[in-house]
Write a structure and sequence with these properties.
Layout: E1 2-3, H1 9-18, H2 24-34, H3 49-58, E2 59-60, E3 65-71, E4 77-83, E5 89-97, E6 115-119, E7 123-125, H4 134-138, E8 140-143, H5 146-162, E9 169-172, H6 182-193, E10 205-209, H7 213-222, E11 227-231, H8 237-243, H9 252-266, E12 270-276, H10 284-294, E13 299-305, H11 319-331, E14 336-338
Parallel strand pairs: 1-2, 6-9, 9-10, 10-11, 11-12, 12-13, 13-14
Antiparallel strand pairs: 3-4, 4-5, 5-6, 7-8
Helix pairs in contact: 1-2, 5-6, 7-9, 10-11
């Protein structure tokens, strides 16, 4: 059995041709999946029974079971734990922003635009071993297929549809390193983008990477409209290496050069992510060092106080220290926003996704 979301439209067309079905059937199935958001073969009421049965026999529509889900106490955030058929666990998070009662979103208020942002996984586990990250702490299990990535979006899209809502943004910031599963991640983006299908605009997608240099360059060459965020977290190679083993292979300079290349190629802004760890990377001196490194780049810094994880004893920066960090950067000409932490009470924050270990 094959996961139906693993197919692109042309492979589906080829398959239907093999089945001696008329060509328009493939489009009907595609629209059923990505426009009507059907989640089982019975829902395809515009197909003959025989074809519906064949779909049920040949395809998997849901590649995982829902093991648990948790809602944050303020109801703004839901984390779902999915179990894959091989037993691996992945998580995906829905964040509601801009609702009238949303205290987390400082930009909200009357008339603020509601957003439904999904944070999805690209791998079960992660091989990059960042010490402050719960996913890194469990190690690498396997890559997700493009269809397993797409299916996380479809799961929430189907759920939101029942409430008359739609997904507004998708960030590849769940479990795993997207650029370590490059082909499948790009295939999932193409599928979500597809003009005959889900039509999800590339600009509403964001890939977050630990900073794999060759892939950043490749991504630049491909000229996609997808946003990119680089997890930096330190402005000095030794300090970065102490918390991010990847820095052994790719030094900060190389990462920044690759970002420069990306900006030259795409004229798009790069986001640098920064988990503020008390006393480690949150001092004004560090902020100045960072500003010197980023000077002249079309970029901004997204800082977030560290979220707690079991395997790392660092502490979150206080609100006050975070504010000073931000101001120091801005005085040096680097725009910075401090993101509010969300979903901490259900371990759904950045870097807190660890499958069963976090339940
Ligand atoms: N592997 C990718 C994307 C997944 S991690 C990456 O590393 O960029 C998503 C973001 O959460 C990254 O910026 C990561 O550095 C950050 N993060 C990891 N652990 C965190 C923690 N404990 N607190 C805050 N942010 C964390
Ligand atoms: Fe992997 Fe990203 Fe976590 Fe690092 S922060 S271990 S790259 S998921």
């Amino acid at each position: 059995m094959m996961l139906i979301y693993d197919l692109d439209l042309s492979s589906l067309e080829a398959l239907l041709k093999d089945w001696d079905e008329p060509a328009y059937r493939a489009k009907q199935i595609w629209q059923g999946l990505y426009q009507h958001l059907y989640s089982s073969s019975e829902q395809f009421s515009n197909l003959p029974n025989s074809l519906r049965n064949k779909l049920a026999e040949q395809f998997i529509f849901t590649p995982f079971s829902v093991k648990t889900y948790l809602d944050s106490s303020d109801q703004s955030t839901r984390k779902t734990l999915f179990q894959l058929p091989d037993g691996n666990l992945i998580e995906a998070v829905l964040m509601r922003y801009g609702d009238p009662a949303d205290e987390h979103d400082q930009t909200s208020g009357r008339g603020a635009k509601q957003r439904r942002t999904l944070c999805i996984s690209t791998q079960a586990g992660c091989a990059m071993g960042c010490v402050f990250c719960a996913t890194g702490q469990i190690g690498f299990k396997r890559n997700l297929s493009s269809g397993e990535i797409v299916a996380q979006v479809m799961y929430y899209a189907q759920m939101l549809k029942e409430q008359g809502e739609t997904v507004s943004n998708v960030v590849f910031m769940g479990m795993g390193e997207p650029f370590h599963n490059y082909e499948n991640v790009m295939a999932s983006i193409d599928r979500l983008n597809d003009a005959d299908g889900y039509k999800f605009g590339a600009r509403r997608l964001t890939i977050s990477t630990v900073g794999l240099v060759p892939q950043i360059r490749r991504f630049a060459d491909e000229q996609r409209q997808v946003n990119i965020a680089i997890s930096l977290h330190a402005a000095d190679d030794d300090e970065r290496l102490a918390i991010m083993p990847v820095n052994k292979r790719y030094k900060i300079d190389d990462v920044i050069k690759a970002c420069k290349y990306y900006i030259e190629k795409t004229h798009r802004r790069v986001t640098f992510e920064w988990a503020l760890i008390n006393g480690v990377n949150d001092t004004p001196e560090v902020a100045q060092k960072l500003a010197a490194r980023l000077k002249g780049l079309l970029c901004h810094v997204n800082a977030i106080p560290l979220n707690p994880t079991q395997g790392y004893h660092g502490e979150a920066t206080s609100r006050q220290r975070a504010q000073i960090f931000k101001e120091t950067l801005e005085q040096a000409g680097i725009p910075c926003t401090i993101r509010m932490r969300r979903g901490i009470d259900i371990n759904a924050g950045c870097g807190q996704l660890a499958g069963a270990a976090s339940q």
